[in-house]
Amino acid sequence: MAQDSRYIGPRLRRMRRDLGLTQANMAADLDISPSYVALLERNQRPLTADLLIRLAQTYDLDIARLAGDGGAEQQSRLSAVLKDPIFADIDLPAMEAADVAANYPGFAEALLRLHTAWREEQLALADRSVEREGPTGGEPPDPVAESRRFLAARRNCFPALDDAAERLAATIAQADGLQGYLRARHGLRVRRLPADVMMGAIRRLNHHGREVQLDDQMDSASQNFQLALQLAYLELRSDIEAQLQGGQFETDNGRRLTHRALASYAAAAIQMPYTAFARAADSRHYDVEALGRQFGASFEQAAHRLTTLQKPGHERVPFFFLRVDQAGNVSKRLDGAGFPFARHGGGCPLWTVHQVFRTPRQIVTQWIELPDGQRFFSVARTVTQGIGGFGTPRAERAIALVCAEEHADRLIYTRAANAPGPAMATPIGISCRLCHRADCTSRAAPPIGRDVLPDDYRRTSAPFGFSDG
C-alpha cells in the first residue's frame, strides 16, 4: 500500500492543514462527506483520479506535486540516516523506512531533524571538551567552529538549495548567461573596474548606478562565481535563511559565517548545477581540472563542488576536502567521506597535502593508511588565492580531496598504468598526539598515554622512545 501513489493520506492531511481547512471545509468544497475525507487521510480509501482532478481544480494545485513520488526523496534521506552506527543494533528493514516515509512524512521529518541536531551537538561537544580544558576554565565560543559543525552535521549537502539553484541555472541559460540574466531580470549591467576604483572590494552591487562592479584583475572563473554569488543573494536569500533555521549558533558571527558559506554553496550550485555536474563527474571519472574547464570554474571550485554530491538517491563519491596554508593553518574543511582529520593540533607531515608547495600547481596523488588500517586515496594540489596583476597580494594554499579506498577505482587518478595501488599506502596518523606509530621519524609530540623512555644510554632514531606498557 505504501508504494501505491493513490494512497496519499498524509500528504492530503498536510495540504489541508497548510490551506487552513478543516475536514468539513474540504468535504464541502469537494462535495464529499467529512468521514470520507477522514478515511482518505488515514489511507483507508484510495484517492481516485476524478477526486485528484477536483482537488487540483478547487485549490489551484499542480496534480504532479499532489500525487508526489510516494516519499521517495524522504525515504532516501531516512535510509541514509538509519545507516548511522548508533542504529546498528536495531533491525530496520528498508521496507519499514519506506512505509514511514510514505505514510508518516511528518514523523520522518521529525526524526531527520532530530538526527541532524544530534550530530551537530556531538560535534559541538567534541570541540568543547578540548576548548574548555586548562586553567582558564573556559574559552569564548569559536564562530568558525560553529559554522564548521553546522556544515559537517549536514555533510555539506543541502538538496533544497541545489534544487532552487538548478531551476535558476536553467533560466539563466535561456537568458544567454549570467550577465544577460542580470540585465533582463534585475536591470543590472556588469562593469569591470580597476582595483583602485574598487577600493579593496572584488565585487560591489551599486544600486544607484544599477550595476554589479567587479575587479577587472579577477580571472574568468572568479568573475563567474562572483556574479553567481550576487544572484544567490538577490534571489535565493529566503532559501538560504530556511537552511539556517535548524542551526544552533552561540554567536552572531557563527551565523553570519554560515550564511556566507551557504550563499557560496548556492553560487556554486548555480555555476555547476547538481544534475549536470554529477553526470559530468561520472563521465570524466572525477577529473577535477577537466570539470573546472567544462563549467568555467577553478580547480578549487570544482573540487569543493565534488564534496556536495550527496543528494539522497543521487549520491556520488563522498569526499573529504581540506585547504591549508604553508604554516598548516586550516582555512576550509568539509567532510563527506568519514575521514578522521585532527580537529585540534597539527596534521600529519607525511601526508602530501603539506608537501605540494614544493611542486606548485601539480597534482600529487597518494595512498594513505591510518593506524586502524583504513585506507584512503588523496589528490592534492596548490591553488593561488588573490587577483591577478603584478604586486597584488596573493596567498598560496594547498587543497586535498580524499575518498575511501572502496571508491578510489572510480577516480581517473587511480587508472593510470603506472599508478601505485593501496598496497603502497603511506602510514600516517590523525595527529601526533593520537598516533601510536612508535617508529615515526616525523613525530612532533609523544602520543597520549605512552611513557617516554629516558635516553641516558640509548637514543632511538625516532624523536621519542616509548615503553612497552
TrEMBL record:
HTH cro/C1-type domain location: 12-66
Keywords noted in UniProt: DNA-binding, Transcription, Transcription regulation
Family per record: Belongs to the short-chain fatty acyl-CoA assimilation regulator (ScfR) family.
Stored SMART domains: HTH_XRE (SM00530)
Species of the source: Sandaracinobacter neustonicus
Listed GO CC annotations: cytosol
Pfam families, per the entry: HTH_3 (PF01381), Peptidase_M78 (PF06114), ScfRs (PF09856)
InterPro entries: Cro/C1-type_HTH, HTH_RamB, IrrE_HExxH, Lambda_DNA-bd_dom_sf, ScfR_C, TransReg_Diox_bact_type
Key word Transcription present: yes
Protein name according to UniProt: ImmA/IrrE family metallo-endopeptidase
